[in-house]
Amino acid sequence: MNNTILIKNALILNLNNFENKKQSLLIKDDLIAEIAETIDEGNVDKIIDAEGKILLPGLINTHTHLSMTLFRGLADDLSLDSWLNDHIWPMEANLNGDYCYIGALLGAVELIKSGTTTFSDMYFYMEDVARAVEDAGIRAVLSYGMIDFGDAERREAEIEENLQLFKSCNGMADGRIKVFFGPHSPYTASEDLLIKVRELADEYNMGIHIHVSETEKEINDSLDERGLRPFEYLEKIGFLGPDVVAAHCVWLSDEEIEIIKKHDVKVSHNPCSNMKLASGIAPVSKLIENDICVSIGTDGASSNNNLDLIEELKTASLLQKVSTLDPKVLTSDEAITMATIKGAEALGLENEIGSIEVGKKADIILIDTNSANMVPDSSSLSSNVIYSANGSNVDTTICNGKILMENKKLTVLDEQEIYDKARKAIKELKEAI
Ligand SMILES: C[C@H]1O[C@@H](n2cnc3c(O)ncnc32)[C@H](O)[C@@H]1O
Ligand SMILES: [Zn+2]
Predict the structure, then answer these.
(1) Which atom of ligand 1 lies closest to the CA of 145?
(2) Domain 59-346 has what CATH class?
(3) In the chain, what are the domain boundaries?
(4) Cβ neighbours of 372 (radius 10 Å)
(5) Span from the CA of 35 to the centroid of ligand 2 (angstroms)
(6) Distance (Å, rounded) from C-alpha 157 to C-alpha 197?
(7) 356-378 pLDDT, tens digit each
(8) E strand or H helix at 36
(9) What residue owns the CA closest to ligand 1's atom 16?
(10) Is CATH 1.10.8.420 the right assignment for the domain spanning 4-57+361-410?
(11) The whole model's pTM is what?
(12) Which of 221, 285, 298, 420 has the highest CB neighbour count under 10 A?
């Protein structure tokens, strides 16, 4: 028996839809079954009238650490080096699976409320994060953050942990969870670890999620240690490929942009985190000009300090305009693709999500334009979403054909209970320091 939802009168934001005419969309179970001007309302289980609402694919966040939502506002106004070494890593030493579960649920509430249906995560206690994903009804690519600092024994244990996560969680939650490898970065993961990850990624057909070239210090340390910049080093050891999602990519030479292009590495741009930690400005418009796949991420809520992908896209666009002094770069249309089809491509999910097409998964959001910051309508739907809206204009969120929020009310998660538990968790973690 099919579960059917009809969404009618929606302004569908497909980048080939220039007419802005209202359409209907039918969901059958987890899939988009039909898109047409009118669809028969008889025999559908539920009708959503999307009058005045923009319909677009559920947004895709390609780099975050969801459980770190617990650490929001914990350590502000610091460089990456001091933020990680003096504040975050000491706090993370006392984490456990229950804390990571509640932190991930708190993050999931924020994702659902601001229109993100898929996120790619790198963190610890990932089986507990998987549990949160299952309970929240969202979609995720999960990786365990492997750090060995050159210690061979630790390397084996870290790889085993990520492989175990693959074996226990890949395909879990009706296929909503996919598992990647997560070597943290070229400065925390040894060459041996990175080489082993490459071998195993090929063997198991798994993607790889890694931080690369985030700060100038990382470049200088890499040059001091190896005489090579990070991407030169990663190419030399045979690590790079189209299955690698590299977060940040702020400090890139022209030669490294060539390397990224040659290996079809996917870039996850995280402008708010890069601005807040004063890491720098990634050369995104140059990457796009070079036809490199650039998607968008928030990084963790501890360095952002929220998970609002619409706000992130506006920041990305404005930052490129101001850094190149060219208002034509990173348009609202390009920004939308970063959080939709480019995000899907980065995660190897382009046949399932990232656009509104019959046969794709029903990951859909509705944005209500009847709001002070969205009236009158802009000249294009993408302009209204990117430049005028923010996450709080998201009205309805559907993932895998299931309604997770309708009329701004969560339908699956109990947000107050989650807020209370998250406040208790961070209080305990602060007391343990
Ligand atoms: C998984 C580990 O990664 C840490 N982390 C979170 N954000 C960043 C970042 O921007 N650069 C490097 N490392 C980061 C997180 O705290 C975990 O320890
Ligand atoms: Zn990160």
Answers:
(1) 1
(2) alpha beta
(3) 4-57+361-410, 59-346
(4) 6
(5) 37
(6) 13
(7) 999 999 999 999 999 999 999 98
(8) strand 31-36
(9) 88
(10) no
(11) 0.98
(12) 298
